[in-house]
Amino acid sequence: MERGKKILRFAAPAFLLLLLTLAAHMLMRPQKRPVRIGVDSPSPALGVEIFKNFDSAVEIVPLAQAAGLATGELDYFLTAEESLSSKGQTAGHVVAAVVVNFFHPRQDISLDELTTLLSDSPEQVLISDELALACFPWGDRGKFLPTEKVVAAVGNESVLGIVPVHKRRPCLKVLPVDGIDPRGEEVLASRYPLMARLQIYRRPPTFRERLQKIPGKEQDLLAAYLLSEANPWRNPLRPQSRFAAVGDVMLDRDVKKAALAHNWQWIFAETAPLLRSMDLAFCNLECPIGSKGKFINMFQAPPEAVEGLVYAGFDVVSLANNHILDYHHEGMLETMEILTENNIAGVGAGSNLEAARQPVILEVQGIRIGFVSYTEMWFVHAREPISWQATSDEPGVVPALPEYIWEDISALRDEADIVIASFHWGKEYASQPAAEQKALARLAVDAGADLVLGHHPHVLQGIEFYKHGVIAYSLGNFVFDQRLPGTQESMVLEATLSKQGVLDINLHPASIQNMRPVILEGRSKNYLLNRIAELSLAIE
What predicted TM-score, i.e. pTM, was given to this entire model? Predict the structure, then answer.
């Protein structure tokens, strides 16, 4: 017992000394600090954006110099210059897009014009602070603002903006510079003048790192991060999809006569090259296709009319309209069968209400694009007292009820990257949307729709940029035999889609000539673009 006490007397001080030594060692160890990344820019914004998804803590140091690597003040140095002697790693590409308000008449700009404007009237050019780099014509001197503020200002004013190309929004029009459009995948291999490759350089390893032969965990993690999809600047032209939408397509009456005189492909011959160049194309099918059913109202195209839709390149058609049941349930169901057999998806109608409300989801370029479709019911007229509306046990279309719109789009938002909502609505031949149209459209965007497409008025109506969404209130007729004023004016709405939403839209004015749509050029094109701008700016 006495011997044990002696051991404890000697062991206790030794144990205490060991604890004190360990504590001192812990206190003397350098505390882990954030990875310090210097950027060759007066703003930290570019560095913040590049590394916002990086797992480790990062401190961005603006106005940094490469010398900070040698002194240990910096762990990394990010620059668009490639004059350093050490070997760097590509951190991404910066592609700057010159933008104006979508309805601005300007179509392009030269580099000389831009340089002169920056020199003489710099206050007229708003530049994203992520682009404050000396390699660009504006250098580090410019009116720099956060990107979202540039987008908001240019979207509402007649000023010029410059933003990263992958942060463009549909309320903006991207201007080609010296004839080169910065949005195409080929731009990285082109001579586009507002593009730079970002390089990142690492500080030399410390003595301790050399001694232990460890390159540093952060180095490996950061290198892997820069090469991953998590780095938003690795590929500013990240996977994106081109989508086209047109208005009413009716394939009976005089249109059928023209097709029988030529063929069904002839109807779409002038527009098929544009539509087929898209990843997805959409229209409102304003008639049943087939030979079955009981005559109720007005239209029915023969079964072979689907050849025209296939040739044109349509992938999805809306069936929620006031003519799809013109040959009653059997005619509508036959139409759906014919479309399915030809790999065309129909949306907005079904064998019962539950089926009719089911969305169509297609994946293109890794982007999941969802479609829903609705129709107002007040303008549905038939020669027999039947309902177009689908019920729990009867076929039909989906009515444009606010509760259906909210429920369907909210649910689809969780399944798709992009949500496109189609509406058959409004008053025929009215050039301005009714209050009900605006309310339903904005409800759809509030619920999560990215793009709202309207039809039924048979004439063009304006475009509204509401919150994150784009609303085309009426795309007009695309294939129809009407001859009233405005009913032969048409357009193809092209949208660039990404997982982040609608990046931009482009309008291709068209007109119906001898029963088929033709893409316009020159003065006719400019007239219709100006007309659409006037209609759009008049929307309240």
Answer: 0.91
